[in-house]
Amino acid sequence: MGKLQSKLKYSTYKYSRPDGIIEERVPAKTLQEYSPAHVDSVSVVAALRSDLCVSGGKDKTVVAYNWKAGNVVKKFKGHEREITKITCASQSDVFFSASRDRRVLMWDLHSSAQPLQQLAGHAMVITGLAVSPDSSQLCSGSRDNTLLLWDVGRGQCVERAAVSRNLVTHLCWVPREPYILQTSEDKTLRLWDSRGLRVAHIFLTKQHIQTYCEVSEDGHKCVSCSSGFEGEGCEATLWDLRQMRNPICEYRGHFQTVASCVFLPRSLASMPMIATSSHDCKVKIWNQDSGACLFTLSLDGSGPLTSLAVGDTNSLLCASFNRGIHLLRVDQNQGLKLWQVAAF
Description:
Structural class: mainly beta
Strand content: over 45%
CATH architecture: 7 Propeller
CATH class: Mainly Beta
Number of strands: 33
Strand order of the largest sheet: 1-2-29-28-27-26
Number of helices: 0
Shape: globular
Distance between the termini: 12 Å
Number of domains: 1
């Protein structure tokens, strides 16, 4: 199926909130409506390469989607319950999906629609998934308080670690390092050493559940996100992985749980920037060093924004509860702007 074309120009208008903050809003009629990726809420989206993303959600299906052409490339079915996490192997068309069915499935874009491997070992829903930089190992985490380390080639669990009350919310592998970053419902951020799967460092405990984490491309810094309500909590926190005692910056301005964050690549941003998405239907771009909010895009009617990924040099992909996946464009030609181009 192809895309439905819209010839209207991408116009925006500004909205002044009662607290004085200016938000940029895009009228829905200016958007291109692509063929939908899913028939229900989308839980997660990840970039596979510069024109393809993979996503999963409540319809139990993993979808590879060409967001530049506006069509589904392939659908992968094998999970029995909602998809919770997806992670992609570096410089490869291989990716992994995790589900509430307590399994991890391994897929290849160019093979059959059947999973290459099925990894089962958790007692509860899998809520964290990260693949090593060389794609030889996979780490999974769950609400059962455990992390499992898998040998991808053999499809076997080689390490298991459990920490009391460590309800995993997300996992992220540090580039070029044997370390794994992990957020938890116990309000902590942990750094694990994959060599023996032991806790290498526990960061300063936050005041709210830590929902998500992301590591910069150079592996020097990371961001964690907090749950919250009515502006209490709802922040993202920047940490330096070379000196992990205290956070170096906080990004405050969301009014509900911050569900996802990404470092914008240098090719996309003229200065170090971070983007966040929240249950308050807003995507914000921040100055990484000062913590200043540079731009806010309101995706009204989309429901909670569940996942955020960098598409290419000027695009972001944002998954939502009500409106599928949003294609966002970042432009700095005449000052920083972020607007929605399409929905699928």
